Amino acid sequence: MSPLKSRPSDLFSRPSPLWLRSGIYGLLALTCILLDHHYHRLERVHQILRIWTLPLQELARVPLWTGQELGRRLTTLERLQAENDALRHELLGQAALVQQATLLTRDLTRLHALMQLGNSPRFTGQVHRLIGSARNPFVQKVLLEGGENQGLQAGSPVLTDQGLMGQITRVYPDESEVTLISNRDLTIPVEIERTGLRTLAMGTGHQGELSLPYVPSQTDVRVGDILLTSGIDGLYPRGLTVATLTSVTRHPSSAFVEITARVNAGTDSYPDVLVMAPNTAFQNLPTLDNQRHSPVHEPTHKKP
After folding, report:
1. Which DSSP symbol is given to 148?
2. Nearest to 127 by CA among 106, 149, 104, 150
């Protein structure tokens, strides 16, 4: 006898239509809702399910919290970077202002010193500003604001609050050319402040450098001695600071000392200078090397 196939009589074990199963499940869910709403029969079940599902809920919230925290931190980082950039720009602006204020304070201090020097009874003059320098560094000349229209004259000494810088050698209507004392064609009568020795200082053609070629080897000169204008040439007043000795070399085979000096008044850090009036008391004096002697009449001999 062949075995018979038994069919289950269960409703959910047999294939059933989808609408039937959906209706049964929906009716069951509605019944649970009504029982819970009116009779609170499922409160205990709610608590047990909540305890069981709480870790899953927290785990499900992790991506959301992570995204929010990352967004907050990124926003804070962007804000801090923006504030840092703004503060850096403000600091740079303040640094520029501080540097400009320092420069202005230094210029005002030097200008005040020049004004005091120009108002002294010994040194009278006008304050003018440097506006340019020669392209050739070996020329050792600068351009001064002010010329014939401002009453400037050739031969006027030019100095800063640190000492003598040069003299005006050419005058234009509104500009003047100043030859620095370091020019190789310029010679200045000087005296050593410590000993009173008078000699000549000549420009070397290098920026801010002088040489003293005519000092005997037995002379008492030292590094650090200050050179002052002696005033014997009539061009520069006596007592102006010229330079400081930087090198003193004695050679046994030479009768003179090899001396170099550094000019105290530089042109790179002094925008304003004092132009003194030329000394007119020495203009009519004859020069010693170009004196014209009256002709001497020698007796004439006639041939017999």
Report:
1. G
2. 150
Residue 49, judged by CB atoms within 10 A of its CB (0-12, 13-18, 19+), counts as exposed
Strand pairing report for 125-133 and 163-171: unpaired
- Residue 156 and residue 178 in contact, taking contact as beta carbons nearer than 8 Å: no
Q: Report which of 184, 216, 182 is spatially closest to residue 197, judged by C-alpha positions.
A: 216
Interval 7-45: pLDDT, tens? 555 555 556 677 877 888 888 878 777 776 666 666 777
CA dist 71 to 57, 67, 75, 76, 78, Å? 22, 6, 6, 9, 10
pLDDT for residue 292 is more than 50 = no
Beta carbons of 165 and 178 less than 8 angstroms apart? yes
Backbone angles phi, psi at 118, to 5 degrees: -70, -25
The two tokens of residue 215 are 């000092």
Note the pLDDT tens digit of each residue in 74-83: 788 888 888 8
User: Hey, which residues does 187 pair with through a beta bridge?
Assistant: 202
Angle at 299 between CA 296 and CA 304, to 5 degrees: 160
For 254, half-sphere exposure in the C-beta direction (CA atoms, 13 angstrom radius) is: 13
End-to-end CA distance of the chain: 197
Output DSSP code: residue 165.
E
**SS3 of residue 12 by DSSP:** coil
Beta bridge partners of 220: none
Instruction: Find out whether 186 and 199 touch, Cβ atoms under 8 Å.
Output: no
